[in-house]
């Protein structure tokens, strides 16, 4: 019997098909490749579409396959390390050999919530620039950014092209170089709006980064970024240190 045949026996057919598709995803197809449709798989292996759906669903749950609404099912892309140092998303993607792109979702002068007002050192009810963008690499949505920018440091930000590297724009236009940031990382499930922007299902795993960046002690940016958990991971090097001196680590991984 071939390893790519499905036969009647003690092992359920959906489990046999799952093993075939697992080999396909792990050994035969490069990351991001489409697999045959449910109809084609059912015809090729002589099983029902319910059986195909069960096998594919298990591999999606394991992270070996991913579904893209309206496009089909693909072998999972390898996760990228998220940069935890101050580097623009555009530069990061180009360094990886990917083509970066940005979709501007919203940009307006609004009064930020109290947490952002405090982070940016603004007065109560003082407006700031609210910016929402989707970041893509090779056409694939990777992250949603929602942030606030200080009008005292980068006024009239909405008058500029915000589909390019924001850090480069701030440096070239305002002469402001971001040199420090405090960042908090957590995990959460995608809400419906974020899931739609990223092309994933609601509840899908996300890595969330909230970063408050400054230049020469002046707060500039309060940005929260939602990265796809199926495409990103965080890798850190940890050294044993005196707890009183604080933890030391260096990290690899993505930024706004």
From TrEMBL:
Residues 11-78 form the HTH gntR-type domain. The keyword DNA-binding applies. It holds the Pfam family UTRA. Keywords: DNA-binding, Transcription, Transcription regulation. SUPFAM superfamilies: Chorismate lyase-like, Winged helix' DNA-binding domain. Gene3D superfamilies: Chorismate lyase-like (3.40.1410.10), Winged helix-like DNA-binding domain superfamily/Winged helix DNA-binding domain (1.10.10.10). GO terms for molecular function: DNA binding; DNA-binding transcription factor activity. SMART domains: HTH_GNTR (SM00345), UTRA (SM00866). GO terms for biological process: negative regulation of DNA-templated transcription. CDD domains: WHTH_GntR. It comes from the Bacteria. InterPro entries: Bact_HTH_transcr_reg, Chorismate_lyase_/UTRA_dom_sf, Tscrpt_reg_HTH_GntR, UTRA, WH-like_DNA-bd_sf, WH_DNA-bd_sf. This is GntR family transcriptional regulator. It comes from Saccharothrix carnea.
